[in-house]
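Quick note —
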Amino acid sequence: MAQLTEYLRPDVIAKVRRLDLRARFIVDGFYAGLHASPYHGFSVEFSEHRKYEPGDELRTIDWNVYGKTDRLYVKKYRAETNLTAHLLLDTSGSMAYPVEADLEPGASPRMTKFDYAACLAAALAYLMLDQQDAVGLALVGGDDRAMIPARSRRTQLTHVLARLARAKAGGVTTLADDLEAFARRLRRRGLVIVFSDLLCDPVPVQRALRRLRFAGQDAIVFCVLDAAEAHFPFRGPTRFEDPETGGSVTADAEAFREGYLRAVEEFHQSYRDALAGFRAELVCVDTSMSFDQALARFLTARKRRF
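Predicted structure written out below.
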């Protein structure tokens, strides 16, 4: 079996069929790698732990963390209400990229954007429920829709992971409308975490995210791209197809590679600027990125939120 830290690699985790095991391996691998990670401080803060100090009661030591990190940490108990977090996963057709037909002949299969986002959402659910936060799930933006209200009970992880495991990406995006509708349902302050490639008109999506913020929700948006979308490795005449509308165009990829990459960066920057205007965060990841990097970017964003 691969070492725990190997499960932080998307190509390794893709070989694990069950989503509950994927989530556990990602989280355990993240903890196992803390001693060599520059992000351990964020993880400790996220998990509501602090370093053990002489005089602390032994019963407050988290021995699970010790077993994974060889470091002593003390659980912090908060008097205030725990966090309520809502995981919103985009199920629109573009999240299913790449399908097998998109890959070069003989190329190894790789995780779709949807699979990567679902694994990341599962790992965050695992982490937050472990610290007794309330977690809910909403599938939005595509044909597959679902809503699991936020709960902190032990059985919640099973419900969330089971629904994520059955989820499929497909259909034309309705992300902005679904975010607006979700904002109208919320009655309690909390954290909304959106997982999407954001490949739709940005103006209504940004307007919907603003509504979430003004409804009292903190917001963190994961923009999840495929590695090919992020780095554009294409060469020569290439056919590009819209997975939601079926429209296509064939062009010399090298002729507009530089312009494409510039447009992607400008797209991300426009979201960063818009979200910063109402104190929300954008986290950019792609499917070649190890899960510890993605988790660390989330923890950095959350540190700024709180």
